[in-house]
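This is your field. Pick holes in the following sequence-structure pair:
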Amino acid sequence: MSLRWRLAIALGLLAGVAVAVASLVAYVTTADRLAAQVDGSLDRAAAQLAAAPPGAGPFGPLGEPRPGAAVGVGSGPGMGLPGSGGSGAVMGPPGGGGLRGGAAALLDLVSVQQLDRSGAVVAAGELRLPVTARDRAIAAHEASTWLRTEQVGGIPYRVVTVATPRGALQLAEGLGQVDGTLVGLRWRLGLLAVIVIVVAAGVGWLAARRITAPLAALSGAADHVAGAGSVDAAGPAVAGALAAAAAGTDEVGRLARALRAMLAALARGREQQRQLVHDAGHELRTPLTSLRANVDLLRRHGMALPAESTARILADLDAELSELTTLVDEVVELATDSRVAEPVEPMRIDEVVTTVAERARARADRVVTVDAEPWTVVGSARSVERAVSNLVDNAIKFSPAGASVEIVTRPGSIRVRDHGPGFAESDIERAFDRFYRAEAARSLPGSGLGLAIVSQVAAAHGGSAAARNHPDGGAELWLWLPQSV
């Protein structure tokens, strides 16, 4: 099920729950109000009859229905006497003592039954109300007024029993009209709930469609790139969808911008890999060509060559193989980013610099001075040592014989200076590019990857690298790394 439909269904269910709760509250409140109205009308009629003087009710002094009185007459379905369609007024004797106005109107809505002190029915209309033990106790003045619901002939009635001086009166009002009102209310509330749920689901689907449109565009872009197997496959349509989604300021917009940045990074990485392979192939051709020429020379004239020529050729082969091995190692390190698998741990940079300087002195027979203050970096010790070693090797390569190489390290920085010719102004910007070699360095051994590895190690540790010419001559190479606390 799609996200759009899940959102639509969720909104529909939420609206349904809200309508159900509101409908239940409205129904219960209405039912309570209607029941309270029925109970109130019964209480008022009972109070009027209980307070009326003898002979002023719907029955005569002997309990007989008074002529012209409407005993138990109903004014609607389920009200008063079943089958009776009258609506007479309740009256007393001519000339006074009767029930008039509001009391008579109240009695128009109820059925009345009179009990004597023993609880026997002495007068009643057509509707006979059940008499219980509690009704008889009320007639004997042994219990208080009792209000309840009774089923009479299958029809619910609200019945009140109230004590009178001669016994008790039972008044009943039918609940048929109340039940009909509640049934109609239930139907209306149910229909309203269905309509609200359908409308809410529709509105939710439209809203979800608008909300998820950017997500669909992002998903389509990702599928397009994944299906083509190339970042370059993100054509104008995909770029347009990403641009439209990235224009938003919400979470979808941030996701679109992150996806665009990721695709751009992947494209750059792919282009860098392509360029690396191209440049590596170009750099590998030179030592391979030299090796092939020397091997062919040995194959054709090996036995006839003087010992001095043979030794020189073997020395060239050894040098070319050494350079080729270094080049392959550096290309593999750049291409595979092998430092990711290396352990990360605190290291003392002053100790790393001292170790590299000692190794450089022994290998190149050069003067390498060190001015180091203790400080610590958290990272890959092998990678940082390789970067410092590349800086020192580069300085030795460009320093004239007998010139010293200076290493100065302070918390956060490592500076290596040589006393060579320095950089041409056009070369400073590209000093850390892969395979880039200055015009003056193309005749010297090297692959052009040493400083590129320095820049890569610096970036991996959250630092940077830079090159400049020293005011007193020679070049300075800087490596900045974040100091650990």
The chain has three domains: 3-183, 267-336, 342-480. The mean pLDDT is 75. The longest strand covers residues 155-164. DSSP finds eleven helices and twelve strands in the chain.
